[in-house]
Amino acid sequence: MSAQRxxxxxxxxxxxxxxxxxxxxxxxxxxxSLFGISIREVNSVYTDDNGFIWASSKNGxxxxxxxxxxxxxxxxxxxxxxxxxxxxxxxxxIVYTNNGQIFNYDEVSDDFYLTVNLSKRLNNKYLYIYDxxxxxxxxxxxxxNFGLYTYSSGKLAFKNRSLTKKILFEWYDKTKLFLVKxxxxxxxxxxxxxxxxxxxxxxxx
Length: 205
Hints:
The structure is a single chain. By secondary structure, the protein is mainly beta. The chain is 13% helix and 43% strand. The chain contains three helices and 16 strands. The chain has helices at 3-18, 31-35, 118-122, and strands spanning 44-47, 53-57, 60-64, 69-72, 84-89, 92-97, 101-106, 111-117, 129-134, 140-144, 147-152, 155-160, 168-171, 176-181, 184-189, 195-200. Strands 1-2-3-4 form a four-stranded antiparallel beta sheet, with no helix packed on it. The radius of gyration is 18 Å and the shape is globular. The relative contact order is 0.11.
């Protein structure tokens, strides 16, 4: 990744995190009306290698083609789901919820199954997941209101207790993550766990 692209990603993250949404003139189509379904408050959108468009929401997962659609109901184990978002890695499609339920999509059965329920694993009903990213080995890096965790091969590990406020992730390179926080932008080395602030939000004392 070129230095120009890295800083473009950095600037985009910072803008999204702190800016106020604005309206612009666009042409929109109501998927619910076109296909006779009921999907509201879409949280994330993903286009796979086959050209399918996927949209996630707490009401289900929607897969769209040019002339058809399919709705998948996630097998929630815990109630009070407000958000469901995609995270993708090496062609694998994963969905996570705000309360720590993580689902994998299985192409053979054409369905989603529950991989882990972090709230239950931690015995913490107050857990809130801000963001999840996946590293080159397939390990999940999980930002929550109780700190930073990793999850791999059924093992959950605690990484950092200080990162409890809202965080957004994006990869800088294969081993480092941009962390966008209220107080600025940080760089996390996932191999050494070193955390370094590279841009300070001067509006925060």
